[in-house]
Each structure stands twice: as structure tokens, then as C-alpha cells.
Amino acid sequence: MTTTTTTTTGTVLDASGVTMRFGGLTAVRSVNLTVGSGEIVGLIGPNGAGKTTFFNCLTGLYIPTEGTVTYKGTVLPPKPHLVTQAGIARTFQNIRLFANMTVLENVLVGRHTRTKEGLWSALLRLPSFKKAEEASRERAMELLEFTGLAAKADHLARNLPYGEQRKLEIARALASEPGLLLLDEPTAGMNPQETRATEDLVFAIRDQGIAVLVIEHDIRFIMNLCDRVAVLVQGEKLVEGPAEVVQADERVIAAYLGTPFEDAPGQEEVAEVEAAEAEAAGHSTTEGDAK
Ligand SMILES: Nc1ncnc2c1ncn2[C@@H]1O[C@H](COP(=O)(O)OP(=O)(O)OP(=O)(O)O)[C@@H](O)[C@H]1O
Ligand SMILES: [Mg+2]
Q1: How far, in Å, from the CA of 132 to the mean position of ligand 2?
Q2: Which of 42, 65, 101, 125 could make an SS bond with 105 (beta carbons 3.0 to 4.6 A apart)?
Q3: Which ligand is the nearest neighbour of the Cα of 217?
Q4: Which residues' Cβ are closer than 6 Å to ligand 1?
Q5: Mind listing the pLDDT tens digit for each residue in 80-113?
Q6: Which domains does the chain have, with CATH numbers?
Q7: Regarding beta strands 180-184 and 40-44, do their DSSP bridges make them parallel or antiparallel, or are they unpaired?
């Protein structure tokens, strides 16, 4: 297993007091979170905790009700394409690919924020456009090699198995040459081998100097991967710290398993019920007499 001791040399992302309300529902409440350069940070929490909503606030899909988000010291404009241009790329919990485009074309779409060629040069197919296009294809193929999809460059995205579609989303996100990559459940629907491969891929991305913030329900994946983990529960950041500290925190365990309700049966009651059940089971062998 790769070790993840890294030195943090500056803050890439700084989300401060981020709150997102939908009518009466506060989906995210005063969340502070930073990601340093060279870091892989995990964001975990039960279903509906506000993790995806928080990502949407970071990427300009939602304008937070309160709070600010800065990337490398600059406040981000609340527009997705401007956030991408600034250097943040993301993947989606519900895969968003162009199903009827090829794998390569999907990655090329991801590059458009980084190509300077304008509409006219594209329409007139000026030499400068052709050159830029070639360079783009080259880079896109490089990214497909990197994510292990090069052999499928010409396949339609919709024909890829699910795990490879997730990888393609990552390749497309990388095509915008980000400094920070946000991954929303990158291993959902993957088998254990694919999940392991995704771990290695995320380490390789980090090693290329891209900071990573990752949402995932697979706790083993998170614990293997992350330098730091933040736990979101009902919109609030409950705990944050090194993976092993968070894993052992009782509040986190309770949040996942659910805290016992007030009138939860104690040991004695449980023993009584078990005894009664055992007795009933014994009776049921003498069919019919049970009642
Ligand atoms: N656009 C929206 N309008 C209204 N409510 C929303 C909207 N988006 C999210 N919510 C609500 O905000 C809360 C948080 O949802 P969110 O999708 O962020 O959770 P999550 O932590 O990503 O959950 P999961 O692990 O299931 O993906 C939920 O109660 C959800 O119903
Ligand atoms: Mg989500």
C-alpha cells in the first residue's frame, strides 16, 4: 500500500462557513473545509448528509446561501464553467457522459476550457485550429492511457461497462488540467478489483500535483487513500482529522449506525425476548400446539 505522508505547501481550496438552504431545509450548515496542495481529503457521511450539495456549492452549480469558497486564494465565481477554468474539476455521483460520443470525444469535450481557439477558427478550420486540435487529441490520448482506457478510445461511451464509465468521467475531468479534483463516489458500482485500481489511480493523480477531495461510502477505500477525513452529518461537519482518528471516533460510529433511541431495550430485555423466541421455536416443532 502506498503511504500518504505528504507535506502541505499551501491551501488549494478554502471553503469557509458554507451554508446551503433549500426553503426550510438546511442541507449544508456552516461548513469549513480546506484542502492543501498534495493532499487527498475524504468527505464521508450518511445518505442525505449534504456531501453532494457541498460539492455543488464548491463548483458553482449552487450559489451558497452563506459562506465563501476560494481556490488558491481567489474567491470563486459562482458559475460552473468559470470554476472549471479557475482549476477545479469534478466527477458526478450520477455519471454524466455524452453517451453517444466516443470515449475520446468525451475527453476532448473536457478540454474545451483549456483550448484558446475561438469559434471562427474552428468553423473556418484555420491552421491554428488544426494545430490546437492535434495537441488536444494527443493530450486526450495521454489521459486515456493514464486511466487505462486507451484501447477503448473509439468505443461509444454508452457501451463501456459501468466501472469504465466512472474512469472516463475522471479522464474527462483531468482534461481541463485541474489543480483540484473533486470525486463524488468514484467507486460506486465497482467490483473490489476496480475499486483497488481506482485507489491507485487517485494516488497517481495526487502524485501529478493535483489535490483531491473525494466523497465515498466505501470506508476502506477512504481510509486507505486519505490524508484527512471530514465527516458530514445532517449538513454539519461533525469530525475532521487523520483517517485513523476519525475511524475510531465514537460520534462517527454512532452517526453511521444510528444512535440508540430513547426506549431502546437494555441487555435484560433483549435476553428475555431471546429466551421467549427460543422457547417459541422449540414449540413450533410440535406443530399445531403452539397456540
Ligand atoms: N436541489 C435541491 N433542492 C432541494 N433539496 C435538495 C436539493 N439537493 C439536495 N437536497 C436535499 O439536501 C439534502 C442533502 O442531499 P445530498 O444529495 O447533498 O446528500 P449526500 O450526502 O450527497 O447523500 P448521498 O450519500 O445519498 O449521495 C437531502 O435532504 C436532499 O434531499
Ligand atoms: Mg451524494
Answers
A1: 36
A2: 101
A3: 1
A4: 22, 25, 27, 45, 47-53, 93
A5: 999 999 999 999 998 899 999 999 999 998 887 7
A6: 11-87+178-281 (3.40.50.300), 98-160 (no CATH)
A7: unpaired
